[in-house]
Design a protein that fits this description.
This protein is α/β, with parallel strands linked by helices. It folds into three domains: 7-62; 69-160; 163-229, Roll (Ubiquitin-like (UB roll)), CATH 3.10.20.30. The protein contains seven helices and eleven strands. It has helices at 7-18, 22-35, 43-62, 86-92, 125-129, 154-160, 183-189, and strands at 78-82, 96-98, 101-108, 111-118, 133-136, 146-148, 163-168, 175-178, 199-203, 212-214, 224-229. The strands form two sheets. Strands 2-3-4-1-5-6 form a six-stranded mixed sheet. Strand 9 (199-203) and strand 10 (212-214) form a beta hairpin. It is flat, with a radius of gyration of 21 Å.
């Protein structure tokens, strides 16, 4: 009996084969388990997926931590702090020391952000180039997306840089979006497949009325909750 799996399943299979990060591979397998149809023709495939997931988790538990700046991947919007006292930052934020920088995930306006703190911008150009927002005590030449300030008000700074919080269905954490981005941009971030009749239902500031049905070109607003119909 054929599996009759959706196209997304085979797309995920290809993505899994190319992915290097173990945590990302685990998320892909879990998604494949969810969308694979359940019938006699998929029993072996389910068993194979569960076995692969088990082996992957064992591998992840054995893998040692790599304490190198180069190992820091960009999985969330990045905020880089430059030139601030490390002791003060450690008291304010939950950060860990990696090489000669501080690193951690912080939540601002219900949005998860990757925070990097460093004192030598010349040696960490790769991290700064991948930063949506640079907050520094002194002006750094060559970077436009920065604010120079002695005090760090992340909530205000994130809004000033046009980062908005968008929620999907019943999610508690928001998806970070740029002001002016659309439902289609959100779908891309969520790795969903768009169909001809895809649309969204919006509750929030960008809706003319709560529960408005909108096209994929609809521009999202801060604190919108989006129900995507694909």
């Amino acid at each position: 009996m054929p599996m009759n799996a959706p196209q997304e399943y085979y797309d995920l299979e290809e993505k899994y084969s190319k992915e290097k990060d173990l945590s990302e591979k685990e998320e892909i397998l879990k998604r494949m388990l969810v969308i694979l149809p359940k019938h006699k023709g998929t029993d072996r495939e389910f068993a194979s997926l569960k076995r692969r997931l088990s082996l992957l988790r064992k591998e992840a538990s054995r893998k040692p931590l790599v304490h190198k700046t180069a190992a820091i991947r960009k999985r969330w919007p990045r905020v880089s702090l430059v030139g601030y006292n490390y002791d003060n930052l450690l008291k304010t934020f939950k950060l860990a020391r990696v090489d000669n920088i501080l690193y951690g995930i912080v939540k601002v306006n219900n949005i998860q952000l990757q925070m990097i703190a460093l004192n030598d911008p010349e040696k960490n150009k790769d991290l700064l180039l991948q930063s949506e927002i640079i907050i520094s005590k002194n002006k750094i030449k060559g970077y436009e997306n920065q604010i120079v300030t002695d005090s760090i008000d992340l909530s205000r700074i994130v809004k000033d840089f046009g980062v908005i919080a968008v929620y999907t269905e019943n999610s508690e954490d928001a998806v970070p979006m740029k002001r002016g981005e659309t439902v289609k941009d959100l779908i891309k971030k969520l790795h969903l497949k768009v169909e001809k009749n895809s649309y969204a239902v919006i509750f929030g500031n960008s809706a003319k009325f709560q529960g408005q049905r909108v096209a994929l070109s609809h521009k999202l607003g801060d604190m919108d909750r989006v129900f995507i119909k694909v």
